[in-house]
Write a structure and sequence with these properties.
Helices cover about 65% and strands about 0% of the residues. It is mainly α.
Length: about 475
């Protein structure tokens, strides 16, 4: 059936469309999407114990699909649409052709591009939360958690800080590409959800070796390179600011990785591959709220701090603070995302260069966007102090929002289905949950163990095959 003529523009390239910006925005969105699928799918599936490989990877794979459905159904408009409340937009469908082919609220490209670009950010946020829950969360509970958390938590943070009508946006908060909306949110929400779900089985918590470190590095590499689109796409234009953001991103990540590596060697006498990966992630997270609004020297300083402060909280404070010891955060998202995201937000309040901020926000407003250090330098200390206070307010808002909403969601789900897997499934892992395993150890993947999913005939057949193999 053809669409009504008034829903399709006469010109495929209307005057407001910039083909270069549109091409870069779609490319950046695809790079961010590759961070999740296959990046974090591979990373999660390989960094866990072998029996959890399929379930861990599939939690990420499912979340990516579920978020997209919710995003176009109501999530995008709740995050960037018309105001319902000072911190939330009105829910509405974002698949109307007339809407999708109009110019987006920012940038010289259509709403269809903006919807896709913002979706991949929402998708990776949920996948990061999954990192705290690997190895014990009931998959059905996870299926319910994803749309609920997207609806009642992510949309509030995104509207408040990224939508021009949001209250924190109007105050002048600087969150260049998601240090607050994505990383601090996922770190706090993941830690909170991990508290309610409970810890892994004791033997898993005591010993949880990666099943494939080389594959883990492949996933980490996709995550690192994909960050080019993560931070490079947020000016919504293929500008010099986008170029600066990309370079600052990789400089900070490299500096953070090297710092974490040196600390591991200094204190543990071994250059840990997993540690270096964590350092890479904390560097990427830390620079995210500041990527295009700080100078190169600041990116290096942020890398030094992002490689050392989260290292200290993970390796030292984690063993001393009671709450941190009680919560089983499988991928340490509290340290790599909540701590690093908060650190990045604070350092943005110190290092934000006023001219770069105005270049990014395309405004000539001297009442906002001045880092504290530049406030001292220019004699406008009150402006720098104000910016730092706004950054701290943003951190407090995200923490309170996500502790509350995540707790309510988990308690609500617990009334319907268990949050935690049964003891039998905790012992079996992938085969118990999905009836599938990651690695075939015999022939073409025949199962020789007496799985509860093997029929009597199947078990007899596998025994026959094993007998034939032994005879040969």
């Amino acid at each position: 059936m053809d669409l009504p003529d008034n829903q399709i523009p006469d010109d495929a390239s209307p005057p407001w469309l910039n083909k270069g910006d549109n091409a870069w925005q779609l490319t950046a969105a695809t790079l961010v999407g590759l961070q999740s699928v296959p990046g974090l799918v591979i990373l999660y599936g390989s960094i866990v114990k072998k029996k959890w490989a399929v379930n861990s990877a599939f939690m990420a794979f499912y979340a990516f699909a579920a978020v997209l459905f919710c995003w176009v159904g109501w999530g995008y408009q709740m995050s960037f649409g018309e105001t319902l409340l000072p911190f939330l937009g009105k829910p509405d469908v974002a698949l109307n052709q007339k809407f999708l082919l109009k110019q987006a609220f920012a940038g010289k490209f259509p709403n269809a591009t903006m919807v896709f670009f913002q979706f991949v950010f929402a998708g990776i946020t949920l996948i990061l939360i999954a990192g705290a829950l690997l190895g014990r969360m009931n998959f059905i509970a996870w299926m319910l958690f994803v749309p609920l958390w997207l609806t009642f938590s992510y949309t509030i943070g995104a509207f408040s800080m990224w939508c021009p009508r949001g209250w924190l946006f109007k105050l002048g908060i600087i969150d260049y590409s998601g240090g607050f909306v994505i990383h601090l949110s996922s770190g706090v929400a993941g830690f909170t959800a991990a508290y309610w779900v409970g810890p892994r089985a004791s033997r898993d918590r005591e010993r949880f070796p990666p099943n494939n470190i080389l594959l883990m590095l492949a996933g980490a590499g996709l995550l690192w390179m994909g960050w080019t689109g993560f931070n490079g796409g947020d000016p919504y234009v293929a500008s010099i600011d986008a170029s600066l953001a990309v370079l600052n991103t990789h400089v900070c990540a490299a500096m953070s990785l090297l710092t974490w590596l040196m600390l591991d060697i200094l204190f543990f006498e071994k250059p840990s591959v997993i540690g270096a990966t964590q350092g890479m992630i904390t560097g990427l997270v830390c620079i995210t709220p500041a990527a295009g609004v700080v100078q190169g020297w600041a990116a290096i300083v942020m890398g030094l701090l992002s490689g050392s402060v989260p290292w200290f909280t993970m390796m030292v404070l984690h063993k001393k603070i009671w709450l941190l010891k009680q919560v089983d955060d499988t991928m340490a998202v509290f340290h790599t995302h909540a701590v690093a995201g908060s650190l990045g937000g604070i350092l943005t309040g110190l290092f934000a260069e006023p001219k770069l901020c105005r270049l990014y926000y395309l405004v000539d407003d001297w009442q906002h966007f001045t880092g504290l250090f530049y406030g001292f330098h220019s004699g406008k200390i009150w402006l720098g102090s104000k910016q730092l206070l706004i950054q701290l307010l943003g951190i407090a808002f995200v923490i309170v929002l996500n502790v509350f909403t995540t707790s309510v969601i988990c308690l609500g789900i617990r009334m319907v289905v268990p949050l935690r897997l049964s003891e039998e499934d905790l012992n079996v892992g992938d085969d118990g949950i999905h009836g599938e395993e990651a690695y075939a150890l015999w022939g073409d993947g025949e199962k020789f163990e007496n799985s509860r999913y093997n029929s009597v005939h199947g078990f007899e057949e596998s025994s026959k095959i094993r007998s034939e193999v032994q005879t040969a």
